[in-house]
C-alpha cells in the first residue's frame, strides 16, 4: 500500500456547507471522502488514471 500524507487546504464556507449536506444525506461518508472522490475525478479528466499519473511522475 502506498504511503499517504495529510494535506491542508482552505475551502470557502459555502462549499463546506454543500459538502456537509452531501455527508448528512449519506451521499458521501465524510468530507475527506468527498474531497478524495473530487480530486480523483479531476485527475481522471486531466490525466487519466492514478496509475498513469504515478507512472508519469516516476518517469521524471
Tell me the overall shape: elongated
H/E element sequence: HHH
Catalogue the unreliable spans: none
Q: Quote the average pLDDT.
A: 86
Biggest pleated-sheet summary: none
Number of helices: 3
Radius of gyration: 14 Å
Beta-strand content bin: under 5%
- In whole angstroms, the N-to-C terminal distance is 22 Å
* Helicity, as a percent range: 55-70%
Alpha-beta content class? mainly alpha
Number of strands: 0
Output the keywords.
mainly alpha; 65% helix
Describe this structure in words.
With 60 residues, this protein is mainly alpha-helical. It is built from three helices and no strands. The protein has helices spanning 13-24, 31-47, 50-59. It starts with 12 loop residues before the first helix and ends with a helix. 2% of the residues are buried.
Give a quick summary of the entry.
The protein is mainly α and 60 residues long. The chain contains three helices and no strands.
Secondary-structure blueprint:
Elements: H1 13-24, H2 31-47, H3 50-59
